[in-house]
Design a protein that fits this description.
- This protein is mainly β and about 500 residues long.
- It is about 5% helix and about 50% strand.
- Strands 22, 23, 24, 25, 26, 27, 28, 29, 30 and 31 form a 10-stranded antiparallel beta sheet that branches. A 5-stranded mixed beta sheet has the order 4-3-2-1-19.
- A hairpin with a 5-residue loop joins strand 9 and strand 10.
- It is globular.
């Protein structure tokens, strides 16, 4: 039975979304129906449609008691909102329905597993948030929380494992018919770890072991894990908090981590071989993947970051959007990401410029502008005897504002910079990444969707993501070189 809390949320979101015009939203990125959005949840394929649930507070553009918003799509680019799926309305989740995942049961129902939060006052005037894992079952629209909740709590954890930092279950069904789940946790050393649980029916769960340990190597708490097999390797995704930079590989604060290695199903042992950031830009966190019916592993993340998560205007009607869905692969020990191939069907109005010479200055190219575009660049030295010092492309540009992407080949450093995008807050405005040295050619694919840029470097070897809230009328694009550059540009409108 639908609770009063959930009915009120559904009524509110239905009325409030009518106040947001289509032009105020991104065009092909999922944004919140109304209010606030953060982590993707329950990313799944069910009854012929992709389902995306998300952390949601409908009543304000700031974080609040977490609900689960809900949207569906057939192509991952055009989304229809469904009524909110979960609200904090039970004793075990009264302070929030945190992140989780979704699977289809053998009887055709969809099962959601999420973290229930109960805030408990402490003797010193503070509080602690006790976190447990809970489930709900439904038909793709309406979900009933189970009487057996919570299905995992403090009694299921070994001594010394945190009851306060125990969240974000990600489920899957293995080829042997058993259900498995990874959950983020904090051990006694204050670091992060990923726990592994199993179940025969997806309702009764038991602890198996620690799958991966941080040991204070990369940040502290590891949130939002995802674990899957891909191209003969096993991949563990997680989002560490409180990171310190390690050269160009990781940045300060909250970030993303990909571990690639081997997994022994008999001993339940994951052996790390490689590690890397998932996204090297400013705004990307808590990604989750789905296995598509055609076998592709597709990932979406929250296109935001906790260190920059504030509305850009007090009059803003919504806050939060998801990244472009990305097809994943593992090549040469690295995670590669490419925009989903469905995006190609949106490409219209091709404009191509080949072998353009750019030398010591700025140029504009005929027909190259826009805020909903897919643009491919190939940048090469214009003089075989002299490498250029800097190349830059500037977009969302007018006389006053711009966001830029620049490359210095002598340093092999690519930088995204939005400090001139119109923000009046001292947020993080720049990020840099080290490009694996191919001075002879840099390939960039830049996808803009009104308020965001996603940059795919060298066929997806690295990705940089950033949001910006420049007036959409600022649609200019320019190119700059210090030295001599030869470049090819192909631009499509995305319609």
């Amino acid at each position: 039975m639908t609770s009063q809390t959930l009915r009120e949320a559904r009524k509110y979101e239905e009325a409030s979304e009518k106040m947001i015009q289509k032009e105020e939203r991104p065009d092909f990125h999922l944004s919140v129906r109304t209010g606030w959005m953060n982590d993707p949840n329950g990313f799944s394929y069910y009854k012929g449609r992709y389902h995306m649930f998300y952390q949601y507070y409908p009543y304000d553009t700031k974080w609040g008691p977490m609900h689960w918003g809900h949207a569906v799509s057939t192509d991952l680019l055009h989304w229809d909102y469904l009524p909110a799926a979960l609200a904090p309305d039970e004793a075990y989740d009264r302070d929030g329905c945190f992140s989780g995942s979704a699977i289809e049961l053998p009887d055709g129902r969809q099962l959601l597993m999420y973290t229930g939060v109960v805030r408990t006052p402490q003797w010193n005037g503070g509080h602690c948030d006790i976190q447990t894992q809970c489930i709900a079952v439904g038909d793709g629209v309406d979900y009933e929380k189970c009487d057996c909740n919570p299905v995992l709590d403090s009694r299921d954890l070994p001594e010394g494992f945190s009851r306060e930092d125990f969240r974000d279950p990600k489920m899957w069904k293995d080829e042997d018919g058993r259900y498995w789940c990874v959950v983020g946790n904090r051990p006694a050393d204050g670091s992060g770890q990923i726990l592994l649980f199993s179940s025969e029916d997806a309702f009764r769960w038991k602890y198996e072991k620690v799958l991966a340990e941080n040991r204070n190597r990369i940040g502290k708490m590891w949130e939002c894990p995802d674990f899957f097999e891909l191209d003969g390797k096993w991949v563990l995704l997680t989002s560490p908090q409180d990171m310190l930079p390690q050269g160009f590989e990781f940045h300060n604060g909250n970030g993303t981590l990909c571990l690639i290695g081997e997994y022994d199903r008999k001993t339940l042992t994951f052996s790390e071989q490689k590690q890397q950031s998932i996204d090297y830009g400013i705004d990307f966190y808590a990604p989750q993947t789905v296995l598509a019916p055609d076998g592709r592993r597709i990932m979406m993340g929250w296109m935001q970051n906790w260190d920059t998560s504030m509305p850009h205007s007090p009059y803003q009607k919504w806050f939060g959007q998801m990244s472009l869905p990305r097809e994943l692969s593992v090549k040469n020990g690295r995670l590669y990401q490419k925009p989903i191939r469905e995006l190609d069907d949106m490409r219209k109005n091709e404009v191509a410029h080949s072998d353009v010479i750019l030398e010591n200055g700025t140029i504009h190219l005929e027909g190259v502008r826009g805020r909903r575009i897919d643009m491919e660049l190939s940048i090469r030295p214009g003089d075989p005897d002299s490498i250029y010092r800097k190349f830059a492309v500037r977009f969302a540009q007018n006389e006053e504002y711009q966001t830029s992407l620049s490359f210095r080949p002598y340093e092999s450093v690519l930088k995204i910079d939005r400090k001139f995008s119109g923000s009046r807050r001292a947020l993080i405005h720049q990020r840099r990444c080290k490009i694996s040295g191919r001075e002879e050619e840099l390939k960039l694919r830049i996808i803009l969707d009104r308020f965001s840029a996603e940059v795919f470097v060298n066929d997806g070897e690295q990705v940089m993501t950033a949001t910006f809230y420049t007036d959409p009328a600022a649609d200019g694009i320019s190119f700059f070189a210090d030295g001599k550059v030869r470049m090819d540009v192909v631009k499509y409108d995305l319609v």
